[in-house]
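Much of what follows relies on a compact textual record of a protein's fold. Each token is a code from a learned vocabulary of local backbone shapes. The record below shows the convention in full.
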Amino acid sequence: MLSLLRKDFPKSYKIKLKSSVREYLPIKGLAKSDTHRFFANALAYYELHPLLEEYAREAMVEFEWYEDTEDEKSVMPSSYTVFGLGLSSERYFPLVEAYMDLVDDEHQLMHDKFTAVFADTYGITERSTPTLTFCLLRSHDSLKLKIQPELETEDKLSLFVQHIETLSDGEAERVLYPIWGKAEKLAAMARKAQEPRKDLLLRLLKATGIACRRFVESCIISMLLRDKATKRQSNDLCLIESRGRTCTYVLRAAHPEGKINYRLVGFWALH
């Protein structure tokens, strides 16, 4: 196979397999195709793993597909090998990262299935977190990870925060969404948390930029709701100026008699 791929063999293909053995990867949702079975059977032999890694690096090509799957179950060549090796040993984390760097996430969904099992298998560790981040950067909104309980511990959350802070605002928001959903939920948790957890959650919000602004706004609203005069009016919080990460807010107050006035609420530097 390697010899063929290194020549002019088509980059999209399928494998026809005649075998009574029906082994599949421990990832729900993948197509139960002959190609999947072939590589799942091969992965059962540990001595083949280095050769399978070599195949995977040769086979992964963006915008190419195994031809015995279609629609939402379509996968890039090398997918089954990468998924199997990635779940077998930390040694293959760089292979997973190389795969995620190439995968066409606009037309492929199945790598989300792998990401969920990867997170369940390895959790949050010094070795696994960078690779999990690579996976989440290619994830979709439908992915939901069940790792919040692990992030209840201060050391795990601190480790996770350190990795998130190396990302851009948009990347950070994308990585956090499969874990906590919309930023408002994370902001609500931060408001209720005690130190040092509160500070760590705020650092996560600040890493996303937009999410941090939402947290500030939710805090302002909570503060205003404690004001009896404010409660008697219909209020809208308005962002009137944003320079970098410094925001200026005013409160637009509509009185019952129809009068409207504005009150400067304050300036917030989102650092």
Notes: Residues 1-139 form one domain. The chain has a mean pLDDT of 84. The first strand starts at residue 234 and ends at 243. The first helix runs from residue 2 to 5.
